[in-house]
Design brief:
about 130 residues, 4 helices
Length: about 130
């Protein structure tokens, strides 16, 4: 079944790619620090494999949040919004209330923005009329 082309306003594409770009930069930033900390720990001669599990789990979560919106925009939007909520709760538990709400929001803002923009562009694209031939 052929896909129907839809005429979308320019701002829908801008929202879509801006949100995805924010998430990619955010994921790359955190992946760099995850990899750097685990490799530093392993090169120091640590016998613990706990860092390797953090490396694998963190990499999978962050890459899923960065790749899924490119494949399935609607699913990716909900994945990113779920990641933002999960990170907010995780950092709140880890910090035991010592971090302010603003700091927690800054940690969770990129997936929240990326998920919100992805969800908005997906909803607008679904409601757009088909392109006239």
């Amino acid at each position: 079944m052929p896909r129907v082309k839809k005429k979308l306003p320019w701002w829908v594409s801008f929202m879509r790619y801006f949100g995805r770009g924010v998430v990619i930069v955010w994921a790359a930033f955190w992946l760099f620090f995850i990899w750097a900390s685990v490799l530093t720990e392993l090169s120091a001669g640590s016998e613990s494999l706990g860092g390797v599990w953090v490396l694998v789990g963190g990499t999978l979560i962050l890459l899923a949040g960065a790749i899924i919106p490119w494949i399935w925009e609607g699913v990716g939007a909900f994945v990113l919004l779920g990641e933002a909520a999960a990170f907010f709760v995780f950092f709140m538990i880890i910090s035991q209330g010592r971090m302010g709400a603003v700091v927690l929001l800054v940690f969770c803002l990129p997936p929240l923005v990326g998920g919100g923009l992805s969800l908005a562009s997906w909803l607008v694209a679904r409601k757009a009329p088909p392109k006239q031939a």
